Amino acid sequence: MNGHEPAGGPARRLFALLRSAGLTAAFAESCTGGLCAAALTAIPGSSSVFLGGVVSYSNESKRELLGVDAATLDRHGAVSAEVVREMASGAVGRFGADCALAVSGIAGPEGGTAGKPVGTVWIGVRFRGAALERRYRFDGDRDAVRNAARDAAFAQLAALVADGAPPERDGSDQA
After folding, report:
1. Domain spanning 10-174, CATH class
2. Kindly report the CA angle at 127 between 72 and 107, in degrees rounded to 5?
3. How deeply is 154 buried, as exposed, middle or buried, from its count of CB atoms within 10 A (0-12, 13-18, 19+)?
């Protein structure tokens, strides 16, 4: 994958949904390193829905830029439901957005463990007080994992916004 998605892809679907509802979004990205922001801002008119994003690759930047609690990072690790929940909340607060997505994972090829193998990605989304965090396990090389995480984040946020109702936090595995 080259990081570019076809017309009608996940970023376009999210853009159309946000624009039609008059909503704004902000992103908090770690392993995707700005891929979500790049994909959305490649769409003409994206400034009507996208307020900004933070690439918080280090734990320090997660704390300082997004308000992730140090105890959360220590207790659960950066790749966890609890951290992406706080990242998404931090993005909403920092930008004053209606909704947000947050992505943290292990894109590889190194860094995986038995409990969190390479390809493990947690995505958190937030909309009007509702939050949903899900763990995914993506296969492939670093680029494949990062691009799959980007697309899954767009789809997860679009689903939450389209539903408009608070979902249950299930923490389920997705592939």
Report:
1. alpha beta
2. 50
3. buried
Domain ranges of the chain: 10-174
Which residues in the chain land under pLDDT 50?
Answer: 1-5, 7-8, 165-170
**pLDDT one-digit tens code per residue, 86-115:** 999 999 999 999 999 999 999 999 999 999
Place of tokens 């994992």: 145
CB within 8 A of 75, min separation 6: which ones?
82
Give the SS3 label for residue 126. strand
Cβ proximity of 25 and 50 under 8 Å: yes
CB 108 within 8 Å of CB 147: no
